[in-house]
Amino acid sequence: MYSTISQLEVEMIGPESLALAVLVIPLFGSLLIGLLARLSSTKHLSRIGWPIAAITTTVTFVLSVVLTTVIVVHGPIEYSIDPSMLTPPVIISADAFSAVVIFLDVLLAVGILVYTRTVGPRGSLFYMAYLFLVACVIGVAVIGDLFMIYLFILGVSIATGILVDAGKRRGATYAAFKLVVMGAIGATIYLFGVLLLVRTAGSFSFGSAAEAISSVGYQDPYTVTVFILMFVGLGVNIALFPVHTWLARAHADAPDAVSALVSGVVPAVGIYAFTRVAYTIFGAEFLEVNATLTTVLLITAIVTMLAGNLFALLQEKMKLLLAYSTISQVGLVMTGLVIANERAVFGAILHIFGHGIIKGALCLVAGMFALQYGARTMTEYAGLADRMPASALTFGILGIAMIGLPPTVGFIGKWYIATGAIAEGLSIVAFLVIVSTLSTLAYVLPFINRVYFVDFDGPTVPMKPVSRKMVIGIVIAALLAISIGVLSGWIETLLSPAITDLLQ
What we know:
This protein is an all-alpha fold. The protein is 77% helix and 3% strand.
């Protein structure tokens, strides 16, 4: 099952070291910034955070590309590192799904870091928390240990809270506090389920936990209780309805760059953890034999999808609209995962990645509109295409992708989820996915209309400049939103073995 190697025996090349390096490098970078900030007594040293963060994220990005290639070519990586006889082994477990989450995390981290170089936030604490967040997301994706996942999820909440408060906007401190408290509550509920499971499993490893669940029985009250505790805990961190308000508040009050992370990366961590718990540990058969529980999960996901869109329809401010849209998309992804056939799960995984790119870039575009012309509401978006043509065009493309029109990745993800639902005889679910898409159209189209077809009525001179690098970043995101959709058939071929293994 797992090969055991000592820490000293890990070679500097090879998939094992590669998976570990992708986790350790941003963690080391975060610690290095914190150490230098504490020791620094000069203005020059206090500015070392950005170069370290830039180098760290670039190296991590390159390694994540290599890791993804290795996993696609050679298959999943599974092994354990035994650092000493006094501590349990550290289990590394990464497959194509892990690679999707890692690549999304690091890709957004690089792009958003470029954005912060111009508009901020800055400072040693910000960059330290930034790299720590990157490391914790990767940790959830590569560690095959239920307790370590708890620690990393808690780390994600703490780091995100620090980042949300970095801009010192009105209400940001409360939003950050609420995020951290809700994240801690969710993680603690999840931990209760883990500790209850470990009483039988004897270990936190995925393998031991799965064997314990199988031996006890899928319909045993003990097994169902463990699952409910873990799902509820992760549901808080995913921002499922009705425990979704922390995400909306944090998204609205965070700096624009941080909002991109809150929308693009943070919910994906909880979704990934849920997928591992539901399929790697409990298994698809558990969901099949507990039909009532599965129905509750599906209803929760659908209500989240529809409620998020309903709240988005009521918003005048772009950042709140994007926040509630993220909640809706989280519900859509969870719907695909609960349907639990290969088409729907592929659609869900593709949508996690596509949504992260689209929503992250839309947050940055919204920030650029606000930076140059103070535009944050629908009224203030009037005529921006005349003043910022490249950014406005990108905004339109990303908006179309968020709606889910072909050939964008937004359309492909929804298509696979809807057709997967039909294959299971859940035509009503497919219909509700279409309703959700039409709702998205209803709140995105008015913004695009004002950008292009209403006369500009803002300041004649830009308030602050937007750098060329910022524009290039959002253009790349728009191109990715289209190209991933076009290449979805090839991507499905690459992910198919991992999805098959997950469901079996």
